[in-house]
């Protein structure tokens, strides 16, 4: 996941274009939950990951937080750390019983449910004001067994396929791949004839985790069923794993076994990848660093498996947790609700990387500049208008390249699909069992053995959490 930043625009120009001057930040009034007292004079400590679009942190989020604190009489501090550090930092603070009041994850932190507050009251207040939460986001923050929201999700990120149109045109598939098999048929041809590989990771990192799940679901399999029973070891999983072994042999190179979360982005930008599974962050980076590559990057929805199923895993899901040790829980809840009210700013400042969890939220009356899209009354309108006419497109770049993302909720799903992102799924995700399974087969292990070994690990994890009463199912 590459970082990007809008070059050629000063901070003053950005603030003016975005309509977030010091007197026009669009900060919503303090929100007071029923039965709660005003939080004036309190503190709030927030820990967030360093966003892949640097200007999001530097020119919007930090300024927004400062303005929110001033408007609500709260002394707010924000710490940004690397994505890979979030799990260990969270565990350390919870173990110590002190630290930040709000911690942001970009994957389900369901394994921390016993140590965090139930945020059902925040969700109820948000849905009353902004309409229903996107189902994908609910399944990534709600445990149906305990009936608790272990986190609150204000937004998420779409995970399309990104392909180089010129390479695929030369191979005879100008509109890019439609099925997973196309990656072998045409991606393999591109590697043989043009010397450029596909960029799907097989390592212990976020993108490899997402790709493995998307492949599994598109082959009509999953880790668990809708009732949280482990169903990983079945012929369709073996079929998917065998496919990945073929794909590696035909269209990829050994470096994918050691990739980090930025590797596929870097390969695409450097002209060394014909297709990657990623958000639009790689494209945004290319726009600044290698414009000619960016103009050649186009997008696909979820690829379809052999029986026509096509699912993509949400790329990032913004889960905020409030540890039980926090003395400022009420203030944290107010902050989360106000963040939803101002998510039009988050979308724009992230260069459309962030998508709202509450599509029916009305655009704040105080929003100006970029929020004034003609006819846009709700975040859904704004979201689709921007994807139809990308405000960050390069001069001379083809219009409507992002239009495929308008219906992304139809082909995107959550970690844990077709069930919830329960604590067991969270641990399976955090320990990279699926990408390890795929990598083992790609390195020569029989698919049946790779699946059997993964199932053994998965079942042990599910058993542990089921005994704690946090996971349903029986097997």
Account of the 3D structure:
The structure is a single chain. Helices cover 42% and strands 11% of the residues. It is of the alpha/beta class and 475 residues long. The protein has two domains: 11-157 and 315-410, D-Maltodextrin-Binding Protein, domain 2; 161-312 and 412-467, D-Maltodextrin-Binding Protein, domain 2 (3-Layer(aba) Sandwich), CATH 3.40.190.10. The strands form five sheets. The protein has a four-stranded mixed β-sheet, sandwiched between helices. Strands 8-9-7-10 form a four-stranded mixed β-sheet, sandwiched between helices. Strand 1 (43-49), helix 2 (54-72) and strand 2 (75-81) form a beta-alpha-beta unit. Helix 10 (263-269) crosses helix 11 (281-289). It is globular and about 65 Å long. Mean pLDDT is 89; it is low at 1-40.
CATH architecture of the largest domain: 3-Layer(aba) Sandwich
- The share of residues in extended strands comes to 5-15%
The CATH homologous superfamily name of the largest domain equals Periplasmic binding protein-like II
Taken together, the total number of domains comes to 2
- Quickly count the helices: 19
The gross shape turns out to be globular
Low-confidence stretches: 1-40
> CATH class of the largest domain, anyone?
Alpha Beta
CATH topology of the largest domain: D-Maltodextrin-Binding Protein, domain 2
Report mean pLDDT, rounded to a whole number. Answer: 89
Q: Main sheet?
A: 4 strands, mixed
Structural class designation:
alpha/beta
**Computed CA radius of gyration, to the nearest angstrom:** 22 Å
Q: Helical amount among residues, as a percent range?
A: 40-55%
Biggest sheet strand line-up: 2-1-3-13
- Rounded to the nearest angstrom, the distance between the terminal CA atoms is 36 Å
Number of strands: 15
């Amino acid at each position: 996941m590459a970082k990007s930043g809008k070059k050629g625009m000063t901070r003053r120009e950005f603030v003016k274009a975005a309509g977030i001057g010091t007197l026009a930040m669009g900060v919503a009034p303090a929100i007071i939950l029923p039965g709660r007292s005003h939080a004036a004079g309190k503190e709030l400590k927030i820990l967030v990951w360093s966003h892949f679009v640097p200007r999001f942190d530097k020119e919007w989020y930090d300024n927004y937080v400062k303005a929110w604190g001033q408007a609500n009489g709260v002394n707010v501090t924000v710490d940004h750390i690397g994505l890979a550090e979030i799990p260990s930092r969270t565990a350390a603070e919870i173990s110590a019983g002190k630290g930040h009041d709000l911690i942001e994850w970009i994957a389900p932190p369901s394994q921390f449910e016993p140590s965090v507050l139930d945020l059902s009251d925040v969700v109820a207040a948000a849905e009353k004001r902004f309409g229903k939460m996107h189902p994908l986001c609910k399944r990534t923050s709600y445990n149906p067994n305990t009936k608790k929201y272990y986190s609150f999700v204000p937004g998420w990120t779409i995970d399309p396929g990104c392909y180089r149109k010129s390479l695929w045109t030369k191979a005879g598939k100008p509109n890019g791949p439609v099925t997973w098999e196309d990656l072998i048929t045409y991606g393999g041809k591109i590697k043989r004839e043009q010397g450029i590989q596909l960029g799907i990771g097989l390592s212990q990192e976020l993108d490899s985790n997402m790709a493995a799940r998307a492949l599994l679901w598109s082959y009509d399999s999953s880790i668990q069923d809708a009732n949280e029973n482990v169903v990983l070891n079945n012929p369709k999983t073996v079929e998917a794993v065998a496919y990945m072994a073929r794909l590696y042999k035909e269209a990829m190179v050994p470096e994918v076994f050691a990739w980090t979360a930025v590797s596929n982005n870097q390969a695409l930008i450097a002209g060394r990848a014909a297709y990657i599974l990623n958000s639009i962050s790689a494209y945004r980076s290319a726009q600044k660093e290698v414009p000619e590559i960016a103009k050649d990057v186009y997008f696909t929805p979820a690829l379809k498996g052999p029986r026509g199923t096509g699912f993509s895993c949400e790329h990032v899901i913004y889960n905020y947790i409030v540890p039980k040790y926090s003395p400022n829980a009420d203030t944290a809840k107010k902050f989360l609700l106000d963040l939803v009210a101002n998510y039009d700013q988050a979308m724009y400042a992230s260069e459309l990387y962030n998508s709202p969890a509450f599509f029916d939220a009305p655009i704040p009356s105080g929003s100006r500049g970029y929020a004034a899209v003609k006819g846009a009354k709700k975040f859904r309108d704004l979201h689709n208008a921007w994807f139809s006419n990308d405000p960050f497109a390069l001069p001379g770049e083809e219009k409507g390249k992002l239009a495929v993302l308008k219906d992304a909720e139809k082909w995107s799903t959550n970690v844990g699909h077709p069930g919830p992102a329960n604590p067991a799924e969270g641990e399976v995700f955090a320990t990279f069992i699926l990408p390890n399974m795929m990598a083992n087969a790609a390195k020569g292990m029989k698919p049946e053995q790779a699946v059997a070994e993964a199932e053994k690990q998965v079942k042990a994890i599910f058993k542990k959490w089921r005994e704690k009463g946090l996971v349903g199912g029986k097997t």
